[in-house]
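User: Modeling request: complex.
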Amino acid sequence: MELGPYLLFASLEGLVHAAVLSLIALGLSLVFGVMRIVNVAHGEFFMLGAIITWWVSSFVSGNPAIGFLLALLVVPIIVGMTAVLSDWLILRHLKYDPEATIIATIGILYIIQQFALMTFGPDAKPVEQPFNIRLDLYWFGFSAYKFFVIFSAIILLLAIWLVMSKTKFGLILRATQLDSETAQAFGIPISRVYNIVFGLGAAIAAVGAILIVPIQQAHYLMGGEPLLLAFIVVIIGGLGSLKGTVAAAILIGMSDGIISVFFSPNIAKILATLLVVVVLIIKPNGLFGTTKT
Amino acid sequence: MKKNSKSNLSRRKLMKSIAAVGSISAMPGFVNYSQASSSAPIRIGFQVHRTGIGAAYGRWYDRTTQAAVKIINDSGGINGRPIEIISEDDGTDPKRGAEALEKFANQHNCDVAFGTLFSHVVIGSAPRAGELKLPYFVVSEGHHVASGMLNRYTLQPGITDVKSQVQAMAPFVKNNLGKKVTMVYPDFAFGHDHRDYFSAAFESQGGEIIAKVPIPPTESSFSKYFPKIPRDTEVLYHVMVGPAVLTFVKELGEFYGSKGPKLFGFIDSVEAVDLNTPGLEFLDGSYFWEGNPRYAQDNQTVHDQFYRTAVGVDKNGASVSDPKDVSTYAHMFGCWETLHIIKKGMEVSGYSDVKDRSKLIEAVESMKNMPLSQAHPQGAKIFNGKTHQTFGHQYISKMTNGKLVLAHTTSIEDTFYPDEVDYTKQSF
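Assistant: Request completed. Predicted assembly structure:
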């Protein structure tokens, strides 16, 4: 393929990747920013979102768009509630101790993964694209649905930004993130906020899963790689920074797309990890992270 | 004090139970039972990919195995003894594969182990089988058995290997599809067999491999690899495995539409995949290698009919109870045939227990012609006792109106290559 179309194709692939990655990473970043805990089970909430999307859409016959829309309504709620429940049952009792919660979320990771395996089986589950249109771009074909993924992710990110910066709920979250003790002194119910944020983080990852599953299929082992990439994104972007997360997701997603196409996907992952090291050395709080004293 | 009395109690209990067991085995009825070891089942350890990337194959290998065992047991078992299958999930993981063999040998007292498909699991497990002196009948297709990489205890009598398959495909691809080939294959042992042996066979035919595109078997998205396929490719040779094969073919169709190169695929790329899934229409007119034709063909043999019914597969290659549950028909016959070979080997060698394991291996090594029959529904085979590898017919099917129609059947001789090892010279 000639260089021009090659680059165009790589950028489009990279954008799809970046779109989904920014949603997953945003969920992780939100949980870390507000609750100051590292959620190792985040990738499994993503996987759960994908598998439940398959499950929900398998009930609906006829136009695949109906099942997809139903999944968009139901799946984030189910996944979010699962996260809320695991916070309420486990993390709350650990008083959100950073080390203990890492171990606990590793446990949650295995519980969710094995639950998915035992309930839905080990096979990859295909979900039909809500619309099956192939755009012929002369040098190569590209699915119209992939453009829809990019577009939906942008809308969602804007919505999240609006909520965070313009609403009272966003204000509460930002206050808790800034200084949870003072926030509590001003009457903010911290434990309830934590509970909601943990659910919200998982629900955002689930939306990413709903978008990607018509492209990639749902599988019980699919949570590992997005978790790793989300961590990379969050570290590069600065933990807890919305702007930084999106910027880093685009950087990693695009470079992954372009490097994978020109060289090999393994080199893309090596370079991304190397970038983390460089950022940690030069700017330990991430590109957009604020220095805390 | 308390602790002491507890341990006294359990010791006393233990003494009592030992006495009880002793007196029971001294009873006349019990002696009869313990001497009746000749009617005890033959225990076959089944290393199955129940989870991990080989799960779809594992499910169907299991169904085929259970069906074959039922047929054999209903007709009197092996030397009058029933077969008992002891399944262990290996998670399609080499380390767990070796652990499963250990359990078969030391914990379950299995007579033999059997059933592994994925080549990396075979390669990871076979050395342990050699150490445990456990006959290990694999159903894997990899060239690792016949290449001499493994050991005397590892045999592949029920399924042909990649080297023989691709060698028989090369002339067909060159004469019917084109001379410039790009290969897309999974980046592990099985895929490397394709890469090395197809390119060698194809180049010796005067063809040219213009690019090789390896893809990690755990990959979930494939579009990014397709721009590496050169524009002047005449034939795209594709073989893919793992849970994401449907994504692979769908994205291939999305990328090329109807404008791409001609396609020659190994059925692995769509094994266990419903060919009428939306997005796969572009496959129509393309060719596939099949180990055993998925769709019941016009010239279907009575043996295929019998085997298909016994396993519970309909004429489209899907489960009779769920038309969406498509089988791994091109591979799973290997389990059926291997179990029948184990039966024959045990009968010929007069196998009674684990001390006869080497006799069993020698009996299988001395087998040669395996005619088309109920025991070999895929077709006739010629087994090479020296290389522990079987050779057989290969099938090429053309996708026609959403179905695979048999276009060419190779001879067994097309698949022969010179021996690379003589396992019979290795000591037990």
